[in-house]
Specification:
Layout: H1 3-17, H2 22-29, E1 33-42, E2 48-59, E3 65-71, H3 77-93, E4 99-105, H4 114-128, E5 137-141, H5 147-161, H6 181-199, E6 208-212, H7 216-227, E7 231-237, E8 240-243, H8 250-260, E9 270-272, H9 274-278, E10 284-287, E11 306-308, H10 317-326, E12 329-331, H11 333-336, H12 339-353, H13 359-384, H14 388-407
Parallel strand pairs: 3-4, 3-5, 6-7, 6-10, 10-11, 11-12
Antiparallel strand pairs: 1-2, 2-4, 7-8, 8-9
Helix pairs in contact: 1-3, 1-14, 3-14, 4-5, 6-7, 6-12, 6-13, 12-13, 13-14
The chain binds glutamic acid (GLU).
Length: 410
């Protein structure tokens, strides 16, 4: 199954509960605009190379389109299209005045020097600068991109259109960024882990967690969960999994990852594979790396009764069906990882007001947005007897379809 089919399937499941017409489904599922641009750059070797950059602008019924820019070798138009649609449902679900978009370039950023990455980013913006803007479409970090990339985007855009830091979010704090943006997605995952487990009557100290992925999202989630006294027993990155049944020393693992740019060589744990991590006997599983890691093939072996999707689309629909049947609770991506875009929204607001908040206010407001969305999803799922994913989609797509009708279709 392709990512886009998974998004469509989840969408249809929710739309069926809402008696949504075929014509509205078609309208909401079709992207407003999709572009692919050539990125020809000179490499440090003096040679040159050509890449393709994508931007899919899915929907703007509720406001300017918003979504990250992914640098990963597996990026293609289909994946970007699916992730752009997820952004539309996500921003609507947490009620930000944004639509959804996503971009990507099929490169492995670790294979390039910072100067090469800068040239690639700037050429990409040369190709799309007329299509983005603070009132139109606002990029942000995603897998493989970071605040440096956002600073280059801001600067390159400025060359064409003048000073306007609100064109991109996730910028360095020293350059119109906001404190707390980097930790935001991981922190949001942690906030929801806390809410979800207490709703199920479980204390953090009694909750063993396996966390897949130790990038920006996974590492910040681990930090927050550890500080909240959860027992994080397994973590992983591309170098494999690290398991300690009594609970890992997360500050030590974070320091190792900072020093070595990876968990590779971390000794204070048993080595396991990324696949084994997913099947551990834990109370909570958090996939925070790539999509499609849990399918019908391994779902029956997943023991955790609760899964929080910190990554985008880690649970494939065939696995979701297994979990539904078995009563495994899945907190869906469009809610679980919405912390990042929420703090992006705070950054955009501040850029436009030329006014900065402190970290405490950012964290407080993030907590409030995530908690409100969680409560709404939880009560709708109880009320309509549907999964948390279907309830989240119903709320998200319901808001987008109402805005579409109110704004006028013709
Ligand atoms: N890339 C993040 C996401 O998938 C953040 C997007 C943003 O901040 O606009 O939600």
């Amino acid at each position: 199954m392709r990512a886009i089919d998974a998004t469509r399937l989840y969408f249809d499941r929710a739309a069926d509960h809402m008696d949504m017409s075929e014509s509205m489904r078609e309208l909401l599922l079709t992207a407003k605009r999709e572009v692919s641009v050539q990125i020809a750059v000179e490499l440090d070797s003096g040679d040159f190379a050509t890449y393709i950059g994508y931007r899919v602008q899915h929907d703007d019924a509720r406001g300017p389109m918003k979504g990250g820019l992914r640098f990963h070798p597996e990026v293609d138009l289909g994946e970007v299209r699916s992730l752009a649609a997820l952004m539309t449902w996500k921003t609507a679900l947490v009620d930000l005045p944004f639509g959804g978009a996503k971009g990507g370039i099929a490169i492995d950023p670790s294979k390039f020097s910072p100067r090469e990455l800068e040239r690639i980013t700037r050429r990409f913006i040369d190709g799309i600068h007329e299509l983005i803007g603070p009132d139109v479409d606002i990029p942000a970090p995603d897998m493989g991109s970071n605040s440096d990339v956002m600073a280059w985007i801001m600067n390159q855009y400025q060359k064409y259109h003048g000073f306007n830091p609100g064109v991109v979010t996730g910028k360095p704090v020293e350059l119109y960024g906001i404190p707390g943006r980097e930790e935001a997605t991981g922190r949001g995952v942690g906030i929801l882990a806390y809410k979800m487990t207490s709703r199920l009557g479980r204390k953090p100290q009694q909750t063993r967690i396996a966390l897949q992925g130790f990038g920006n999202v996974g590492s910040h989630a681990a930090k927050f969960l550890h500080e909240s006294e959860f027992k994080v027993v397994a973590i992983s990155d591309v170098s494999g999994g690290y398991y300690r049944p009594e609970g890992l020393n997360i500050p030590q693992a974070l320091q190792h990852a900072r020093e070595h740019k990876s968990l590779k060589g971390y000794k204070e744990a048993e080595r396991i594979s990324n696949e084994e991590l997913l099947e551990l006997d834990v109370e909570l599983l958090i996939p925070a790396a790539l999509g499609g890691v849990i399918t019908a093939a391994n779902a029956p072996k997943v023991k955790a009764p609760l899964i929080i999707e910190a990554a985008n689309q880690p649970v494939w629909p065939d696995a979701d069906a297994v979990f539904d049947e078995r009563g495994t609770i899945v907190l869906p991506d469009i809610l679980a990882n919405a912390g990042g875009v929420t703090v992006s929204y705070f950054e955009w607001v501040q850029n436009r007001q030329h006014y900065s908040w402190g970290i405490n206010r950012v964290r407080q407001e993030l907590d409030s947005v995530m908690s409100t969305a969680f409560e709404r999803v939880w009560s709708l799922s109880q009320e309509r007897k549907v999964s948390l994913r279907t309830a989240a989609y119903m709320l998200g797509i319901g808001r987008v379809s109402r805005a579409t009708v109110l704004g006028g279709i013709t």
